[in-house]
Every structure is written in structure tokens, then in C-alpha cells.
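Discussion board: Methods & Data

I've been asked by a reviewer to show the raw model output for two of the constructs in my manuscript, not just the figures. I'm not sure how much to include, so I'm pasting the format here to get opinions. Each protein appears as its amino acid sequence followed by a line of C-alpha cells. Is this the kind of thing reviewers expect to see in a supplement, or should I convert it first? Here is construct A:
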Amino acid sequence: MAQKEVKNRIASVKNIQKITRAMEMVAAARLRRAEQRIEALRPYASAIRRMTRQAAEAAGNVPNLPILNEHESVDKVGLLLVTGDRGLAGAFNSQIVRAGVRAGTEHEREGHSMVWYASGRRGVSSLNFRGREVAGSYTGFTDRPAYGDARDIAQDLMAAYVDGEVDQVEIIYNGYISPLTQEVTRETLLPLQHATILESEEDEDDAEEKPSQQALVEYEPDPEDILKRLIPAYVEISIFRALLESTASEHGARMTAMRNASENAGDIIKDLTLQMNRERQAEITQEILEVVSGAEGLT
């Protein structure tokens, strides 16, 4: 490779490195804002989930409300995949799609038919590419989701459950742990009787106090009426929490991916610079030999 070609390639890699560093800085700034939104939401989301669980336990028999009625059999399962609108974030999107496909295959082996929902263009396009029809697609807000976006998704999922289009609703998303770590999380939203909310131990600190707390709680109106109001809020806040967790995970994954890309570009620049210096040294050595040979020829 000629020196000119090596120089051009070094310049090209440096330009790419500038872009990846800029994208890393943007992702880091957005990640901080996303972390703040998650920290602000988590106490409220945990309170809603705890209240719903306690009201369900206090109600005993589930009220005769369509959204709370458990279907006789599970024939159709609605699965919501939460991905991003953009790529360049490592395995962030692909691991959700793979987990969703695995979950769908498991349900199909059990004789269930799948109804697919996807948030984020990457999820929608990946499902379409795999030949899976998407019943509901939600895009254009993954960088900064609003509560209204979660409400729109929740209304579609609850309507599908009430109308009998699905018998169970699950969600798969990237749970945010740290900028370097995102955990694929799978939760059951509906029916309430099988929802993850009734199985989780998020309030472990309150576990020992649970009997005394239940004895002190008085519901007005009765638990059934409260539960009717809490269920829609529980589904909405669960989806909104998943969207925020996914957004933070996406920014963290993109920041890490761009940092790795910048470091790899730096390694390539070092290798190319070393190669260029060697070629330049070889050319200088060759020129010296030619001068010496010419001088000897004149003597």
C-alpha cells in the first residue's frame, strides 16, 4: 500500500473516530437524563404495583370486570417487544428480538398462537423480516418516551385482552442496571392472576411487616372498586417503566459501543501510522543506497 493511500486511510479513520466520540458524548448526556427519569419513576411505579398486589389480595375474589376476568384457556399470547428506533448500540436491539423469538417459539410449542407487538423501528423491522405479522407497532419516541406513549400501548393491549384477541400479555425489554449492563427482562402483564406483579418480591424490605400492614389497611371504597381503578394504571405504569428502562439501556449500550469503536479506531490509526513510517523508512533507505551506489560509480 502506497504512503498516499495509507495517509488517506488514516484521515478517514480519524474522521470516523471524531464521529464515534461525538456520539459517545451525546449518548452519555442522554443517559444521565434517562437515569434521572428512572429514579423519579421507580418509587411511584413500585407503589402502584404494591398497592395493586395488596388490593388484589384483600379483594379475594376478583371483581367481575372484563379486564380482570381470566380467560378459560390460553390460546393466544400477546408479546410486546421493546426496542429502539435506531441502531449503533451493540446487541441492544438484537438480544430483545432473539429473546422474543425464543419466547414465541416456546409458546408455539405449547400450542399457543402469537400476536406480536413492537415498540421501536428496529423491533418492527426485525419481526417483519422474520415473517411475523405485527399487530401493533409504536415508533418515533424511543429516545424520550412520554407517559402518553405508554398509555396508547396499554390501551391497545388491554382492548385486545378484553375483546378476546389475546388471552395473555407479556412484555420483553432491556432492564437498566448500569451503562455497561442491560438485563433482558420478561414480565407478564395480563391476566392479573398470572402477572409478574403478584410473583415479584420487589418489596422485600416490607415482607416481614406485611401481616401487620394488611391488618392496618382499611379500603374506602372497597378493594374491588379500588382494584378496578388500579389495573389500568398498573398496566400503563408497567409499560412506561419498561420504556424508560429500555431508553436508558439503549443510551448506555450506544455509549459503550461508540467508546469501543473510538478505541478500535485509535488502534487502527496506530497500526496504519506504524505501517506508513516503515514504508517511509524503507524509501529513505532505498534512496540512500541509490546515492551511495551512484557515488561509487563515479569514483
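Construct B, same format:
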Amino acid sequence: MANKLGQAIARNWPIKLAALFFAVMLYVAVAAQQPITQSFTLRLDVDGPPGRPIKQPAGEVAVLISGKGSELFKLRALPRVIPKAIPDTFSGSIWHWRLQASDVPIPKGADVLVADITPRDIEVRLDSAVHKDVRVASRVTVQADSGFLIQGLSVLPSTVTLIGPAKSVVAIDSVATVATTISSTNGPFFHTVPLDTSPLGPVRVLPREVRVSGEVLPLLQRSFTGVVVTPAATGFAGLTLATERVVVEVSGPEARVQALTRDSLRVVAHLVGHAAPDAYARLTVAAPPGITGRAVPDSVGLKTAPKRKPGRG
């Protein structure tokens, strides 16, 4: 009986072996298409802002991933780290992070679903930071073409905020722009210039760039003759000006200079010395904003004022 059973098993054994192989392969193929769930442990790798170390590691999370067996097989290339960088703008001491499915670094091409993350809410503690507002020091040079005038140069914002360790922030009173030259400019101009953060070390600055603006206008020079000289309020007792009218040369933006009249200018005499013949008057010109002027000559002599005759009673 046993002999006959052995002969039955041995009969046509290649065919039977092939059938067994295909049955196993079919089982594997069917099993690979069935949805299954697998858990992975991933480490959280959190980087703090520059100069602000993290007090303790963020730890690990359990990630539950579901999908077909054939797709889960692709997760052999799954990175076991979830990286995250805390924004430079963050200045608090505790940073909260809620993990999302998109944070899990699923390999490209793997058709799987992140079913759950435990824990999902992460809390990271950092060294404390302080804030301080400091002025912006401009290192911007504007080169106007010959015959043009730079006007209204401004830097906005004029102050920026420092964020960082207290001992580093307290030593900084200003932040300079990167050295920049603006040349061959006519008319209004606007340039974005980065701040020079290289000397700041671990301290961060917000914003990291400023806007430099201004206007380059055609320059016009013009002369006005016969402008009256007015003595200053005090010091001229007993003295009078040897010259009462002078020439005034002005320069400035073309449109403003063209609109000037002789009455727009004021020449003031300031006493130098106390008595004739050594005393004289230095002349200054008061002109509208944006206009520069000088008197020709820039000083005048003085003479003794004639004495008034006593009036008749």
C-alpha cells in the first residue's frame, strides 16, 4: 500500500511540482493586492533658528501606513527621519508643530496612505530670545550724471528688528546695508538693497532688506541781481552797510529754480567785529527748500552811520 502511494506521488512529478509552484505564486499575487497596515517609527529632526539651540530633542513618532502589500514593499526606502526647520521669524520659547500626513517622507511612486501619526502634536523648547529695534545705516552711494542733482534720498524702513540671544543683541546699535553704488540714474529711482548680516553672528534681523528711493533731477544755475541785503536784528547800532544790494547765485532742480523770483531770496548780513574800520558783515542766503544760494560778494564792508540832526522844538 505504501509502495503504491509512493508511486502515485512520484508519477508525473514535474507536472505536480509546477502546479504547486503556480499555486504558491497565485497566493502571493493575491496577497500582494490585499490592503494591509504597517507601523513605522520615525525620528523627528528639528532645527532651531540660528543662535537658538533646542533644549531637548523632539523625540520619535509612530506612523501607521496602509496600502497594498506590493506598495508597502516600496517603503523599504522610507527615510526614518522627519526633518523640520523652525522659521527664522519665530521668537518665542516654545514652538508648537502639528504633524500632517504630508510631513511623512513617503518615497516617490509609493501608492500608500498615512493612516495615523502618534503623537501628532509636537512641542519644542528653545533658548529664549529678545527683540530690539535699531537704525539702518545706509552704505548706498548714488552717482548722478553731470548736470543732475540727487534729491529726496531715503531708506525705508529706517529701523529694523533684531531677534536673538540677549548678550548678542545688546551690543548692536545699528545694521548697515550692503555697500551698493547706484549710477547713471535720471529721474525717480527705487532699489532694494540687502542688509549686511555678516557681523551679526547668531542675531537675526527683520526685514533682511530695505528700499532705497530718491530722485535725480536736472540741475539749473541762475543769477539774480540787485537782491537787497538785510542786516541781522542786533549788532549794527551806529553802523550801516557799505553795499545794500548784491548778486545771488542759486542752483537746484530746474523746475524749482525757474519758478524763483528775486523776492524768493533773502540775504542777511551778520556782523563780524565790533567797530569800523575793521568790522564787516558776512552774508548768508536764505532760499526755499532744495535750493542752494550764495551772495556775490559773500561779505560787505561797514561804515559809520551818519548822525541824525536834532529836531527843532
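Answer (T.O., handling editor elsewhere):
This is acceptable in a supplement if you add a one-line summary per construct. For B, something like: The chain has three domains: 33-125, 130-218, 219-304.
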